[in-house]
């Protein structure tokens, strides 16, 4: 896999330049570069129980929380994924800065990574249910069934076997990554916040608001004005 290490914040812009001319590139940020590209349902601690059974239990109870009761299986699985359920979906985004946010927002003592996947191999979700697909790993473009999904410009890979990681052997296209050194994470987060990419924009709900204000307070020493005087968008 081709690998680049981010040298500075200026390097970020020059690195991304080569991906501007195609909309087929999708991005994923991980705060620990050593993590594999494996869906949550296939990871240790979650892979001993059928993700289909968990999803069926989720559907039975989730209906009381959903304003729309006409979601199809793909939409419900997307909502379940974005609310923390272990599924066979793996989050990607159409927007690279969103991926860089997730690569820098946690594990500040570890190097993160942003993966760039170029593929035109999309599952025919209009013809197959999520658990009926035959391809091992395919890209899925969801409908915007939640505001989180919309604001994060979300896409997914769906893995027929949740324990199968996406890598150079299993991908249908090209895969590369850029390493985010731990010492650049904090400044990268401030840059992204200046560009409007933060907890508040990516999680447009009370959880996102609380996380954004918590992050702002935690980094109080960074700002040139006092917290009480700062206008926080």
Please state the structural category. alpha+beta
Span of the ends, CA to CA:
39 Å
Compute the number of strand runs.
Answer: 7
> What order do the SSEs take from the amino end to the carboxyl end, as H and E?
EHEHHEHEEHEEHHH
Envelope shape: globular
- Percentage of residues in DSSP E strands: 15-25%
By oligomeric state, this entry counts as single chain
Helix content: 25-40%
Low-confidence stretches: none
Main sheet: which strands, in order across? 1-7-4-2
Folded structure, characterized:
The protein is globular, with a radius of gyration of 18 Å. The chain is an alpha+beta fold. The protein has helices spanning 9-16, 51-62, 73-82, 96-104, 147-151, 182-194, 199-202, 206-218, and strands at residues 2-5, 25-30, 89-93, 112-118, 137-140, 154-159, 174-180. The strands form two sheets. The protein has a four-stranded mixed beta sheet with strand order 1-7-4-2. The chain has a three-stranded antiparallel beta sheet with strand order 3-6-5. Helices cover 32% and strands 17% of the residues. The mean pLDDT is 93. The protein has eight helices and seven strands.
How would the blueprint of this fold be written?
Layout (H helix, E strand, L loop, with lengths): L1 E4 L3 H8 L8 E6 L20 H12 L10 H10 L6 E5 L2 H9 L7 E7 L18 E4 L6 H5 L2 E6 L14 E7 L1 H13 L4 H4 L3 H13 L15
Parallel strand pairs: 1-7
Antiparallel strand pairs: 2-4, 3-6, 4-7, 5-6
């Amino acid at each position: 896999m081709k690998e680049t290490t981010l040298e500075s914040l200026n390097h970020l812009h020059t690195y991304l330049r080569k991906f501007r001319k195609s909309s087929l590139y999708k991005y994923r940020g991980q705060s620990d570069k050593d993590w594999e590209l494996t869906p949550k349902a296939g990871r240790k601690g979650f892979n001993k129980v059928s993700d289909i059974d968990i999803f069926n239990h989720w559907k039975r109870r989730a209906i009381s929380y959903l304003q729309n009761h006409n979601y199809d299986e793909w939409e419900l699985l997307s909502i379940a994924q974005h609310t923390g359920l272990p599924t066979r979906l793996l989050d990607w985004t159409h927007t690279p800065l969103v991926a860089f946010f997730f690569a820098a927002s946690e594990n500040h003592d570890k190097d993160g990574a942003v993966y760039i996947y170029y593929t035109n191999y999309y599952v025919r979700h209009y013809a197959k249910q999520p658990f009926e697909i035959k391809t091992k790993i395919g890209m899925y473009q969801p409908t915007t069934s939640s505001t989180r999904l919309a604001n994060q410009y979300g896409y997914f890979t769906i893995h027929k076997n949740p324990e199968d990681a996406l890598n150079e052997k299993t991908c249908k296209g090209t895969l590369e990554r850029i390493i985010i050194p731990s010492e650049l994470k904090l400044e990268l987060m401030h840059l992204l916040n200046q560009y409007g990419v933060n907890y508040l924009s990516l999680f447009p709900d009370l959880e996102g608001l609380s996380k954004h204000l918590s992050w702002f307070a935690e980094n109080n020493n960074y700002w040139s004005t006092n917290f009480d005087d700062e206008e926080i968008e």
